[in-house]
Amino acid sequence: MSRKRLLPLAALLLCAPALTGTAPASAAPHTGPSAGPSGPSGPSGPTGPLRILLTNDDGYDAPGIRLLFDRLTAAGHEVTIVAPLTNQSGVGTKLTGGGALRVNHPEPRVWAVGGTPGDSVSFGLATVFRDRAPDLVVSGTNFGPNTASLATHSGTVAGAITALEQGVPAIAVSAGELADPVPQQILNAMRPTGEFTVKLIDRLRARAKNGRLLPVGLGLNVNHPLVGADGTGTARGVSVTTQDPQLGLGVGYTDAGDGTWKVNVALVPAVARKGGDVEAVSAGRIAISPMSPDWNAGTVPLAATAALVSGLRP
Question: What is the pTM of this model?
Answer without folding.
Answer: 0.85
